[in-house]
Design goal:
This protein is mostly helical. The protein has one domain: Glutathione S-transferase Yfyf (Class Pi), Chain A, domain 2 (Up-down Bundle), CATH 1.20.1050. The chain is rod-shaped, with a radius of gyration of 33 Å.
Amino acid sequence: MIRVLWILAGAVVLTSLVTGAVSIVGQMVDNSIRAQAEELRDSVREARADLNGCLDGLDGKERRFRSHERATNFLRHRVDELEALDDRGVPRDRYDEYLDVFDRYNEAVPEWERLGDSLQVLSATCRSLAQEHNERVETLSRFLEEENLWDADWSPARPGPTPEADPDPDESTEALPDESPEADRDQP
């Protein structure tokens, strides 16, 4: 009888140990999955910060380009006006003015071209960063769906803890509208 009690006690202890071990392993797996989700979320935030920096730079370059373009167009228009004063050519009394405007226009064109080329390169870089950001958002979204972490605390627009717990609520991680995972689901 005592032997049976010892066997039963051993079985209870063994069952408790196995249950505890399974619980610990389950918790470790859950923590590992959440850690992976946090890493993906951080990756999305990093990509968004890179994209925002690029877009800020693009905005500044575009303003400089547009300003220079207006000045260049003004000079071109002025050259055209001076050339249109007389069918035979620029009048002699306006020729010095014409040469001055013409020279300034010719000096402005290479800078306008350089600014335009630079703007195109930066624009391509920003498009690439936007694509990378959207791919990371999609990866995070798939991961959250696969791991059943898609609930009130996690979303593709703001993965991770709820916004109240988020240290920087101004930092957005949402996908650009045309590339968002939700847009794919809404289409037939």
